[in-house]
Amino acid sequence: MKKIHFIYGAFWVITLTLVALFFQTPVSQQPNEMADSGVLLKGQVIERHDNVVYVKLISGPRQTVKTELNDLFFHDDYKKGDKVSLYVTEMEDGRLRYDIQDYYHKDGLLAVFVLFGVLAVLIAGKKGIFSILSVMLSLFLFYAIILNAVKAGFPLLPAGLIYIFLITVLTIPLIHGFNRKSLSSLIAVNAGYAAGFLFTYFFAAAAHIGNTPSEEFRTLLSQFPDTDIRQVLILSLFLGAAGALIDVAVTICSAVFEGLKENPGLSFTKTYRLGMEVGKDILGSMINTLLLAYLAASLPFLTLMAMARFNDVHEFLNYDFVALELTRIFLGAFSIILLIPIASVAAAYFVAKNAKR
Question: Is the dihedral of CA 116, 19, 101, 293 positive or negative?
Answer without folding.
Answer: negative
